[in-house]
Write a structure and sequence with these properties.
about 130 residues, Arc Repressor Mutant, subunit A, three-stranded antiparallel β-sheet, 5 helices, DNA binding, WH_DNA-bd_sf, WH-like_DNA-bd_sf, DNA-binding, HTH_HxlR
Length: about 130
């Protein structure tokens, strides 16, 4: 199936667990990573981000942007135009998530393919069984 897993000491496992918990704490929820991916296209205004994400409410988007700003993934820029223009863009630090996003995308594509394939097999088996 894949390479054999190595077993680690309790301390190593605890350190790994804590690191994963920290990462999930920062990136939790269904919107943070899609929001970062959306901003990879370049700086955007609030309404542009909301349209690109689809179902997100303004309240949730505002909260997620603030969280990402606090964690140094996003920068909010205010321009003194009339009316005031506000844009959001990714910081250079956000590039530290590129590998994570790419791996999640690749895994997601493979997972979806696997589920679709298994549904086709289950459907075929059900048809054969029903015809017996």
């Amino acid at each position: 199936m894949g390479p054999r897993r190595e077993y680690h000491s309790k301390e190593t496992c605890t350190a790994s667990l804590n690191a994963v918990k920290d990462a999930l704490y920062v990136l939790n929820g269904k919107w943070k990573l899609p929001l970062i991916i959306s901003l990879q296209e370049g700086p955007q205004r609030f309404n542009e981000i909301q349209k690109s994400l689809g179902e997100i409410t303004p309240k949730i988007l505002s909260k997620e942007l603030k969280d990402l700003e606090l964690n140094e993934f996003v920068i909010r820029k205010v321009y003194s135009t009339t009316p005031v223009t506000v844009t959001y863009e990714l910081t250079p630090y956000s590039e530290s998530l590129d590998k994570v996003i790419n791996e999640l995308r690749d895994w997601g594509l493979k997972h979806r393919e696997r589920l679709v394939k298994n549904r086709k097999i289950e459907s075929a088996v059900a048809e054969i069984t029903a015809s017996l």
